[in-house]
């Protein structure tokens, strides 16, 4: 600004109105450049999705103490936003690593989902093949649930993975629909049965 700190302080002491306006414009108790608050929105999104504050901070690769400091000093209204998010989502997932997958990769996907990316974009930015994410969703309902919840909270709705039960018309193992193959196992069993009938009739 073309002035020194002593000169600025002397003006603040000499002009009470200037001091009051400067104090009103400054967010106490922060000094110096404004802190980085770019993580506030995704943090609130993850909490709205049902994560605890500790887990949301872990997903964002954020120090828990930093999140607590911003919240306790209500920087950028974070205190009320977090409280409202806790009431909205409730805490469904706690701890640091509640899911049975590679957490670093899953956290990368969740982090980008919280920033508003769709699932395909979040997987690409996190360096995780989309097929891998789909496999997680298919095999692990709890992982599917948190992915859907984060996407929903971020404003990019995602339907839960459809789990259908094999009708069992041809396949008694009931695995076809559960593993995402859907028609293939039943069709194969049906084909084998037709072949056996033909051989028997011959």
Describe the structure.
It is a single chain. The chain has 202 residues and is mainly alpha-helical. The protein has 2 domains: 37-161, no CATH class; 164-202, no CATH class. The protein is built from 11 helices and no strands. α7 packs parallel to α10 (141-153). Mean pLDDT is 75; it is low at 170-181.
What composes the largest sheet?
none
Mean pLDDT: 75
Q: What are the secondary-structure elements, in order, as H or E?
A: HHHHHHHHHHH
What is the helix fraction of residues, given as a range? 55-70%
Q: What is the radius of gyration computed over CA atoms, rounded to a whole number of angstroms?
A: 27 Å
Portion in beta strands: under 5%
Spans of at least 5 consecutive residues with low confidence: 170-181
Number of strands: 0
List the domain count as a whole number. 2
Decide which structural class fits the backbone: mainly alpha
Overall geometry: elongated
What's the end-to-end separation, in Å?
A: 98 Å
Q: Number of DSSP helices?
A: 11
Features:
202 residues, mainly alpha, 2 domains
In short:
With 202 residues, the protein is an all-alpha fold.
Give the secondary structure arrangement, pairings included.
Elements: H1 5-14, H2 16-25, H3 40-48, H4 53-59, H5 64-72, H6 78-89, H7 103-114, H8 119-126, H9 130-139, H10 141-153, H11 183-201
Helix pairs in contact: 1-2, 3-6, 7-8, 7-10, 9-10
């Amino acid at each position: 600004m073309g002035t020194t700190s002593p000169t600025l302080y002397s003006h603040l002491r000499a002009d009470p109105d200037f001091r009051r306006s400067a104090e009103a414009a400054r967010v106490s108790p922060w000094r110096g450049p404004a802190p980085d608050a770019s993580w506030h929105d995704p943090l609130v999104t993850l909490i709205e999705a049902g994560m605890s504050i500790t887990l949301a901070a872990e997903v964002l690769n954020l120090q828990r103490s930093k999140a607590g400091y911003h919240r306790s000093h209500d920087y950028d209204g974070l205190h009320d936003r977090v409280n409202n998010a806790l009431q909205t989502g409730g805490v469904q997932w706690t701890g640091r690593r509640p899911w049975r997958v590679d957490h670093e990769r899953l956290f990368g996907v969740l982090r980008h989902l919280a920033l508003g990316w769709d699932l395909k974009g979040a997987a690409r930015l996190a360096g995780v093949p989309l097929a891998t994410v789909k496999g997680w969703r298919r095999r692990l309902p709890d992982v599917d649930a948190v992915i859907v919840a984060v996407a929903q909270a971020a404003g990019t709705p995602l339907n839960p993975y459809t789990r259908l039960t094999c009708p069992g018309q041809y396949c008694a193992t009931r695995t076809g629909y559960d593993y995402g193959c859907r028609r293939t196992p039943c069709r194969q069993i049906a084909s084998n049965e037709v072949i056996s009938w033909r051989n028997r009739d011959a």
